[in-house]
Amino acid sequence: MKAYPLYPQRRSIDLSGIWDFAFFKDAIPCDLEFDPEKIPDEKTVWTKQVVPGCFDAAGDYTGKRGVGFYRRSVYVDRAGRVSLKIGAITICGKIFWDGKLIAFDDLPYSGVAYEFETTEGEHELLIAVENRYNTELTPLFAPYYDFYGFGGILRSIVLENQPAQKFGRCTVTTLDLNGKIRLDMELSGIVAKTDVNVCIQPYSAVRQAPVLEQTVTVDHDGVTSFELNIPDVKLWSVKTPALYTVTLKMSGDTLVERFGVRTIETKCGKIYLNGEVIQPRGYNRHESHPEFGAALPAALMMEDLQILKSMNCDFVRGCHYPQAQEFLDLCDELGMLVWEESLGWGNGPEPLNDEKFRRKQVEQTALMVRNSRNHPCIILWGFLNECHSALPEARNLVAELMQTIKAFDTSRPATFATMSISYGEQCLDLVDVICCNTYPGWYGTELYCEEPTALIKDRLEEVIREVSTDELKNKPLIISEIGAAALYGCHDRMRIPWTEEFQMDYITEVCNQISAHPRIQGLALWHFADARTFSGGGSLNRARGFNNKGSLDEYRREKLAADAVRKIFGGKLFGD
Ligand code: ADA
Q1: pTM of the model as a whole
Q2: pLDDT tens-digit series, residues 17-37
Q3: Mutational pocket test of ligand 1: of 384, 386, 539, 541, the residue with most ligand atoms within 8 Å of the beta carbon
Q4: Ligand 1 contact, 549 CB (< 6 A)
């Protein structure tokens, strides 16, 4: 599945397929400082892996940590500049072209692109993927994160030739609901006055007649901005996810971007899509499956979205990392609201005070916004899930990441999910939407709590009190995580924790309380489907090595809670 943007005039080689693969555990130090001429060497035994894929999710290398070498030859039919576009690598990877280092990708889950010059003919592409945690090497992914750090080339990978005079991205911003949009078109290699043809068409799987065509003349590199009015515009919304394409054509290059016309804003404690109040309801979702690891095929993404729709959800929080562009394209088409966030999890004083961690957070967050900005489905940007936001050092980084996002995009709200409300939270004045993760009636009930679900009411009321001060009352409140674990198929008439009955009762009570409290304007339950997590000692707290709070199990089989949610979400959930 090819995700937007498209550059149809460029020669593009799809590198997905069967690659040579060799796995090394101890031979290579974790810092990846090796000479690819020597390792692998002639004694190396090569096997095969499929790309995209995770080498450690299933098959011969299940659960193994080390360096996986992916190798294949690539035939380039014309010398010149090329761009290697990789949807995502985890945990990090070094990329070699004919044995020469092209790039070190240390932004797990991020879509990256590397440009270089090459000659005509056959070349060797080698990607060394490291899946051992090493926070000095890759500070963004630490072993304590509550989701499995898979190793592999997770998403699409293509090699694309680069014309001398070329387009970068073209971001489209809705200026008003009558169809007024702004285009910020990036160009490079412009040497003389160049005409760019701009054509806007309603998007559909079959060709639609243009609704607007125009020529814009440019004479410089960089960003050229201009405004257009789409006649009889159809707005993007959950119920009618109308999309448009803009095709930009000049001599030597063409760019097709897809977008929707819609506004998203927050005021007086509410969230507005196209000027109307929305109250998003849905789930946190990990890109995770026992067979595919974090490299989900498009058909599975589609299935997840169809299940969510069948459960009357209109909202997905893509926890806790940048999403596959293919998934976001599907959300655009199906009308699913999305919170996209950069990679982080429970980061405390050490990373928060680490300069490299700070730099990489800024880099990946900026890249996320740049990559995903045209998706109308994204209504909220996020970062640093549950960082220790009671610490002053968290405040500095939260402020910096808010600025990073706003420097690229002021058209959407931004936030982080906090676990610190009523525990010294310091950062809520900085965000646009208050997002609270809380597990009353689950964590902390070990010491003879007879009726855990009775704690939900008090805790939600406490959260509401904390965020209803004069300073915070105008920021919408979303409960961004709440839930309880159940083992699929585990039933007991006593309805105790870990049973499907308890989980259903828990979620039903959460929804009852949300209905009673109009201050709450959105809900992302924790979580959609069970997902693999700690494999070592940490799994003592995570039966089977999975985070079992899914309303579905890891194979998307529904637990009792799923149907309860389907019924509740199909009716009136929010209090006003
Ligand atoms: C946190 C965290 C989630 C998950 C959850 C849980 O709030 O953000 O990723 O770990 O707790 O299951 O405990």
Answers
A1: 0.97
A2: 999 999 987 667 666 666 666
A3: 386
A4: yes
